[in-house]
Amino acid sequence: MKVVMLGYSGAGKTSLISSMYGRFQQPIEGVTLSTASNLHKKLIHSYEQLKKGAYPPLSLYVDSIDMNLCYQGRQIMPFTMVDYRGGILTELESSSEQEQVLTDIASADAVILFIDSHSVQNNIYSDFETALLSDLLASALSRCNYRKSVAIVFTKSDMVDEGSFWRVRRPFEDLIDNLFASENAVVTVYRTAVGKKMMNVEYPMAFSLWSIAVDQYNQVVERHNEVVHDANRYNEKAGITDWFMSKLNDEPTYAELRDDKLERLKEIEEEMNRLKCVYKNLNAYMRAQKFPDFNWK
């Protein structure tokens, strides 16, 4: 399972990852995150520094981070975060580089798009940069034949006056409207802030994992129903005549085919229970955190 994080340099991706991970260490409704011990220490150190107002350096490369969503200490959903360094978006010098970025976005289960609210308010983003973010995401989604979770995160919201947020959102209005209208996207729009006064830092990842789990659960339910149908069909045809004909033709009996399907059902039901555990507990987590309405104007 892959979550791609996109945004220009200084948009706050690295800070949000550390802040999100640090906040997820406090079990709420039994939900936490874990990762390799060496990375855990680095993220927690960065989180503690951020709480003091010290910000980490910019990402210099594409960084892949393996994590686990845990419930009551038990790993229930492994996933990989791919954090693109911001500069790569404006350094796409060849069609092959752009194709690789598009492929990564299209193959991801979720995308978190970071937009620096302070830079937008102060006209630091050029029209080209704004259009490039929108075009990359729209092009990648057009390649998908399944629904993808998309979280649009307006970072550094604490640096923008409440009454000015409509100006921050306006350059991305078409992108947001098109995403909400798309059948290939499950979308949320959110404001975040890190540092001494953190705001909503867990929500983008919680939403992404929750929406992935819901979609995967629905797909597994469809597979479950198909296997149940096949098992019932084989069971109706099983019997003495079937046994003799199968032995004569050296083929599996309908009873054997039925039993194979029933074994498969056990595996599918385990997967259903795992995914149900993920989305139910993430839903409880988000409710407990009392996140405000995300589709703000």
Automatic annotation (TrEMBL):
Residues 258-285 form a coiled coil. CDD domains: Ras_like_GTPase. The keyword Coiled coil applies. The keyword DNA-binding does not apply. Keywords: Coiled coil. SUPFAM superfamilies: P-loop containing nucleoside triphosphate hydrolases (SSF52540). Residues 5-177 form the Double-GTPase domain. This is Double-GTPase 2 domain-containing protein.
